[in-house]
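Re: MU-OXO-diiron structure - here you go.
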Amino acid sequence: MKVQKISDHVLSLGASDPGLQYFDKLMPTPYGTSYNSYIVRGEDKVALLDPVQSDSIHQLLSNLALAGVSHIDYILSLHTEQDHSGGTELLLQRFPEARLVGTGKVAEFLEIHLNIPASQVQVIAENETLDLGGLGLTCIPIPFAHWPDNTMYWLEEERILFSSDLYGSHYAVPPYKAADEKIHLETTRSYYAEIMMPTSKLLGRHLAKSRDLDPLIICPAHGPIWYEPDKVLSLYESYISGKVDKRVVMPVVSMHDSTKTMAYYLAEKLEGFGIPVNIHHLDDPNQDLRVSMGKVVEDTVDASCLIMAAPTVLTGPHPSAGALALMLNAFKPPLKYIALIGSFGWGSQIEKRFYDLLPQVKAERLDTLLVKGLPTEEDYKLLDEYARMLKEKLISPEKE
Ligand code: FEO
């Protein structure tokens, strides 16, 4: 990542990881990611915000040299997940004069995750301002966006908000190119789905605080900087509102085409009623299951209904459906309805075993429709009825 001047006192000079394919070995990152780091220069002191991931520290050190930063007074840790904190010790070796600064939770977590003694951290309190001389960084903890330790810092004099993971995106902009807005918005949505949606109920306060501050610029820990903050704040307001579109997300896995036949038939009926259906194949041989699951999770940010179409394997759900259920349970999408359809060969406990994996998904569970073997003429009539039931549910006025 190149050194980027944000204002007379602020530089962006973090690291870029364009080849990253899966964040946390789980979330697809088709545009890679960046580990953003910022320098804030006051009249008296220099602060660095977030020391990047350990295997990217050489990029940060090189950028610091390029920017002529030969002295750092404070290293502020906004969040101790290793993609932002892993380079801390190497950075301290290069700048031994620097003091580590973080909230009490950051100090506690640095000890847990990096074995840096908490006593080595200068603890900063909520709303306390770190004076840099003519400029100050005010500490605003944002717990559970998305870890307990996430912290924003507010540079009042320039109205710049350093937002940690909040408002981020997994998008490594190619060197010497401007960010593509379409990709930026797309990756902001997938990032929200996979990082922030699980704690979405706790984000309203942080979002309101961000609005109150009325920043001119938002500098997140991943992805491009927001020079028009209203764009991302409005997106987040819509994401956390719980408002959903009347549409169906339909993940499908099928072994011998019976379940797929049912899924396609039902999707066509629903589309005929004017209910859009997005089918996601969990069994695409050309696509890693994590990519398919990531697309499903992203699609559930604002969809009213998910219909899992899965066959029974040894009395339980096909393991790909089970893996998706674990993901949905963790990510807690704001679905209003969830349903299960599929075929089985000789016996099934799929309904119980599937929903046992979903205790945290509070959507209304609709009737399950199971078919033995290939659907018969009678089964298609049941699917017609099922489609009518879904139509009633999804477009009934009281659920709008
Ligand atoms: Fe980007 Fe929670 O780390």
